[in-house]
Amino acid sequence: MNKPVEPNSFRTGPDEQGMFGIFGGRFVAETLMPLILDLQEKWEEAKNDPSFRAELDSLNAHYTGRPSPLYFAERLTEHLGGAKIYFKRDELNHTGSHKINNCLGQILLARRMGKTRIIAETGAGQHGVASATVAARFGYPCHVYMGATDVERQAPNVFRMKLLGAEVTPVMSGHGTLKDAMNEALRDWVTNVESTYYLIGTAAGPHPYPEMVRDFQSVIGNETKEQLMAAEGRLPDMLVAAVGGGSNAIGLFYPFLDDKDVQIVGVEAGGKGLEGEEHCASLTAGAPGVLHGNRTYLLQDGDGQIKEGHSISAGLDYPGIGPEHSWLKETGRVEYVPIMDTEALEAFQLLCRVEGIIPALEPSHALAEVVKRAPKMGKDQTIVMNLCGRGDKDVFTVGKHLGFEL
Amino acid sequence: MTERMDRQFARLRDEGRPALVTFVMGGDPDYETSLAILKRLPAAGADVIEVGMPFSDPMADGPAIQAAGLRALRAGQSLAKTIAMVDEFRKHDSDTPIVMMGYYNPIYVYGVERFLSDAKQAGVDGLIIVDLPPEMDEELCVPALKADLNFVRLATPTTDDARLPAVLANTSGFVYYVSMTGITGASIANTTAVGEAVTRIKRHTQLPVCVGFGVKTAEQARVIGRDADGVVVGTAIVQAIANTLDGDNKATSDTVEAVATLVGGLAAGVRASRLEAAE
């Protein structure tokens, strides 16, 4: 594909059709289309309504605990011997990850639309937990679809969702992972379209979800900009974040896209290696296609059948990616690289020992890239990495890989 | 070609009965059996045939059609093979309209222009693409109409009068009314509401209106056929195929016959639907 002409701004998308270049759009069944248009209208109203913003800001501050700290990782910086490393600590949020930022925004929108029931899909369970949390907080019944494989490997999160009053349906179709959970959530939505709000967990799906989720998650990047300015008096040299669907990454990246001197790196799940089938690197090893309401890079075969991805991290185990990331790749603004399961595992352990922080496996991928890059950079340079989730949910998985009986 | 479809609906209008539109998944349970079923359908009573293009992630389909798609894919079906099936079918039948139904991604990956040219060449008459609403018409609908293929649009209970003109604008061949908000294979709760919806759509278009999703029995076909210009049956046929398969999901000597028997009954249903109304 030809490289598009570099735009004057990387912050103007999507267009009125919901497209970022050729990516995005509204590829949904007619049953859902009137609702998607209604959602878009309500979202336009909400984002221009100061009272909507004020309520969300207040919840972010008092319920989630924002702003999350920007932490200078002194010991890790010394250990790697290069650039100064800062962590944006969204793992300290209520519910333990960045997912709550988006869920609070969307639940306010659901209430505005007069919906009476919330559905969500989840992979690692972080989004399911965040959805169940906001549904409990606002008094909505919540139904979470989760791949049967994920239900098994993320049992603590399943229990948390149930404690919060959500109903969890294990999805048996396909390989029982995030993609299949999303198919099933879409089937529920098309059936219960009048009453139900679909709380999508990542910056993907039909327009306006990618834009909406990005805007709710941009609180991460906006805070980072202010906090680093206070700490260092300047912008970072590099941003690093893990990308599954890509919501934590776009949240950090978006406010910096027009700051041309800031190098931006997205880290995909390289799984067991890109030469085989067992990875989730849709941008590095996939091709453009249409799935779950948008055109984006997908892992697929030559007949357009979607492949099952693999990652040690259930949260990165999705064969697609948010459409804005596809566009940022095509325009060259963001560099996307794969990190293997084994590299993520090593980074996970390193952070535990050097900084006393147990990270989730998702940001452990971003950390593994930081470990590669920081030593090659000057000591006067800075990297900000999004530490988007805590690792409590992953200790069983990691224990198993390290041969530790739990 | 668009002409074969128009001719068929004109003929049925003259006969004073609705069309029986049958759906089968291309390549289910395997290419040869599926082709044999396809060839058998017109004689069994099908007036229009929808051939499903299997897709790994059929978001609007219930368990029966999901399973049919997976069986076909596991048996090696591809978009190219589904087109080839239609081509084979056309050697034996030049009257029964064929509509290919499925999701956009396999076509997008095949290449839109190449797909339209190959489908047209094979004798396909129209397309139904579930995940392409009118907002995305430039993708495939407009090129398909230029290539003289019908683009059959789905109208649903959520398509209100304000939106209906946009949905009908580039629709041709017939309008496919989805009887409920839901996935294929669920049950129709209210046939009266379906009749009213068909009447509402007919106020906006001259095109035939066919009703699908949830029609399973000859009796339902008869009742729906009072108001509709056609009745679409999919899940029941796909399930009839599934019921005859052996433990390894392979076809048996009953497979083709079971479909023919079911379709024969459904055909009698649609033929009876206007008799009572005329009484």
From TrEMBL, chain A:
PROSITE patterns: TRP_SYNTHASE_BETA (PS00168). GO terms for cellular component: cytoplasm. The gene is trpB. It catalyses: (1S,2R)-1-C-(indol-3-yl)glycerol 3-phosphate + L-serine = D-glyceraldehyde 3-phosphate + L-tryptophan + H2O. The beta subunit is responsible for the synthesis of L-tryptophan from indole and L-serine. Signal peptide: none annotated. It comes from Oricola cellulosilytica. Keywords: Amino-acid biosynthesis, Aromatic amino acid biosynthesis, Lyase, Pyridoxal phosphate, Tryptophan biosynthesis. Pathway: Amino-acid biosynthesis; L-tryptophan biosynthesis; L-tryptophan from chorismate: step 5/5. It comes from the Bacteria. This is Tryptophan synthase beta chain. The lineage of its organism: Bacteria, Pseudomonadati, Pseudomonadota, Alphaproteobacteria, Hyphomicrobiales. Belongs to the TrpB family.
TrEMBL record, chain B:
The alpha subunit is responsible for the aldol cleavage of indoleglycerol phosphate to indole and glyceraldehyde 3-phosphate. PANTHER family: TRYPTOPHAN SYNTHASE ALPHA CHAIN, CHLOROPLASTIC, TRYPTOPHAN SYNTHASE, ALPHA CHAIN. It catalyses: (1S,2R)-1-C-(indol-3-yl)glycerol 3-phosphate + L-serine = D-glyceraldehyde 3-phosphate + L-tryptophan + H2O. CDD domains: Tryptophan_synthase_alpha. GO terms for molecular function: tryptophan synthase activity. Its EC number is 4.2.1.20. The keyword Isomerase does not apply. Keywords: Amino-acid biosynthesis, Aromatic amino acid biosynthesis, Lyase, Tryptophan biosynthesis. The gene is trpA. Pathway: Amino-acid biosynthesis; L-tryptophan biosynthesis; L-tryptophan from chorismate: step 5/5. It is an enzyme of class 4 (lyase). Tetramer of two alpha and two beta chains. One of its GO terms (cellular component) is cytosol. This is Tryptophan synthase alpha chain. NCBIfam families: trpA. It comes from the Bacteria. Belongs to the TrpA family. InterPro entries: Aldolase_TIM (IPR013785), RibuloseP-bd_barrel (IPR011060), Trp_synthase_alpha_AS (IPR018204), Trp_synthase_suA (IPR002028).
